[in-house]
Amino acid sequence: MEPTRDYPLFGGAFSATLPPGAIDISDLRPVPDNQEVFCHRMTDQSLIVELLELQAHVVGEAAARYHFEDVGGVQEARAVQVEAVQPIPLENLALRCCCEEAWVLSGKQQVAKENQQP
């Protein structure tokens, strides 16, 4: 089995550990500058890392949910399901000098792929 690998994101600003079989979609088609998109060669699963604009009217856990649901709306998702929202301890962040809080949201969105009907 192929091992996981660290992959630089956004020109090396930070990195992510990707599962075996992950393919960088930007090698296949254009991807917006604010996204890093990966798919798995054997499944229908995708991983999208997206840089989002600060929305001052929502904070904390609500901000994580807001952005996840907003992306689902823009993508015309058939289903948007939040599974968990958890704070990231600041001592675990490389940017702790300039972050007051950080959150990770796990969820699922059912989105039609390019050229497919929703």
From TrEMBL:
InterPro entries, per database record: Mog1, Mog1/PsbP_a/b/a-sand
Domain of life: Eukaryota
Pfam families according to UniProt: Mog1
A GO cellular-component term linked to this record: nucleus
GO biological process, one term: regulation of membrane depolarization
A GO molecular-function annotation: transmembrane transporter binding
Record key words, sorted: Protein transport, Transport
Family to which this protein belongs: Belongs to the MOG1 family.
This protein's name: RAN guanine nucleotide release factor
